[in-house]
Design brief:
Helix content: over 70%
Number of helices: 3
Distance between the termini: 17 Å
Order of helices and strands: HHH
Structural class: mainly alpha
């Protein structure tokens, strides 16, 4: 799953989650893009 730089900037909390867990982070990142 590809996470754009804009998503990282717009949703800093997802960046933290992504570092903590790749699988969970990818799901949260996808949710962030939808939201």
């Amino acid at each position: 799953m590809t996470v754009s730089a804009e998503n990282f900037i717009g949703h800093g909390i997802y960046v933290v989650e992504f570092r903590g867990s790749d699988t969970q982070g990818a799901i949260l990142s996808a949710t962030g893009q939808l939201a």
